[in-house]
Design a protein that fits this description.
Rossmann fold, about 40% helix
Amino acid sequence: MARIVLSTFGSTGDLNPFIALGLTLRDRGHEVTFAVQDLFAPAVESQGFAVRHVSGNVVAALAQHTTQRQWGASNPIPSLRALMRYGIMPTLDAQAQELRDACQGADLLVTSYGQLAGCFAAELAQIPWATVALSPATVPSAYITSQPPPIDLPPNLQSLSNRVQWGIGSLVLGRIADRPINRVRARYHLKPIRESLWLGAASRQLVCVACSPSFQPAPPDWPDCVRMTGFCFWDAPSTWEPPETLTAFLADERPYVVVTAGSIAPDLQSAFASYFETSIKAITAAGARVLAIGLTEASQFTGEGVLSLPFAPYSRIFPRAVAIIHHGGIGTTAQALRLGVPSLIVPWGFDQLYTAARITTIGAGQFLFWRDYTPARAQKAISALLNEPSYRATARSLSERIAHEDGVGTLCDAVLALL
């Protein structure tokens, strides 16, 4: 039996794959401890895992600094700058110490890609370490388009464009992240790193990309330490029971479209108000019912054929949906693909721009930038998803392929091999 520490940060979408991994590791006889921020503790403890405290609350920090300039841009730089400034750097020093202490006596550390304290703790505790990335867009490649291109390019030019974009991103993000992170590393007498928001702060032993190769084939130019393992699904807390309103809504056979902005939406309610309002108008105009998830103040989003809830597991509500409008979070996208439902993505930052571009490329949906997200444009896109069979056919084909993958089992095998 090995003693394994799992550590991630962000929103619930970042935690769920780690719970899936933790449950599988425990089923294989290993002792699993989570080192996470307090907002994750209830979900982790409900599954019977021990929890070690890690400082900070990324969701709350970002909620205090939400502006249209940072979110909804056509490139990920503004959101990454805000994440570094408000969500990571204020608590990085404390997290490095806390995660190092959590690793004392452990045999293996597994951290998420953005858990930058991992590169401190693994070196200081001197234990094997694996990094888990949820999106392929966190590992540079000439074969990955990190954001929607302004025009369609032939493959050779698109590859060149990708290289240029990754190169520019390296320079910009180096100024945003490398310098402040290396100042903290110097306090621990650790060597400086480069490209810390990409592979620079990741494990040199193993980086697992927990994404389906059916969605994004593994690029041939990734380093040897990078391995694609597949999606890891878990989203149903044992304490959750569907409200009567949801049970009645799902029992109705009329088609419905789900609109969600991921698990961060309840904390950024004012920022997403116009998004939900536009979506509900568009869906209703397209002739479908609306199931809006992530609204804590739902009174303004009511009406005939509209149900608004603060939370519901996607695995319970996506199967019968005819389409899903969402922000492009990789977890939400994975659930939509797993259940064979086409998506309309409205990305607002981070890797969501990549996801928007990718879902369009493979033909499983469409995307609209925030600046273009009007009721008329949204209705046109939703109507296309509802009426053009190719979108659902592609989504269902991907669903069948994903059903034959064992993402969490493959990930578990990979990290245990480090022992």
